[in-house]
Specification:
The protein has 127 residues and is α+β, with helices and mostly antiparallel strands. Helices cover 24% and strands 45% of the residues.
Length: 127
């Protein structure tokens, strides 16, 4: 798969995720895809299990914003924010492709935090 095709597939995936279109969201995954959530120690094996898990989430996302997507060859990273039940999480998705499908994804979720005042003189605020 060419890099431009992967980028298009990722854009379609994230747009479907934001819209709540579970079928289109999971088209990108191989039938035997693995998705790891390192922070909770969970591994979801298989596209059908991943789709079922996400379809049963008690709070549907109310906000979804892709910040950037970077990649080359078969390894792609997307940074985005996702909002569930009024709480935003900064998220990184690392996807590995094989034969035009995602075979492994690792997702990291981080809660926002207030910056400490002591470092204000050296930083800029990002939006």
């Amino acid at each position: 798969m060419e890099e431009e095709q992967i980028r298009e597939a990722l854009n379609a995936h994230w747009q479907a995720s934001a819209a709540g279109d579970a079928d289109a969201e999971h088209d990108i995954y191989d039938d035997n895809a693995i998705c790891d959530y390192p922070q909770s120690g969970e591994r979801i094996v298989g596209r059908s299990n991943l789709r079922a898990l996400r379809s049963h989430h008690p709070g549907k996302p109310s906000g979804f914003n892709v910040k950037r997507t970077l990649g080359k060859g078969d390894l792609w990273i997307t940074e985005y924010t996702i909002t569930y039940q009024g709480r935003s999480a900064f998220t990184v998705s690392i996807m590995e492709f094989r034969n035009d499908k995602v075979v492994h994804e690792t997702q990291y979720f981080a809660d926002p935090f207030d910056p400490p005042a002591w470092r204000r003189q050296w930083v800029q605020e990002i939006v």
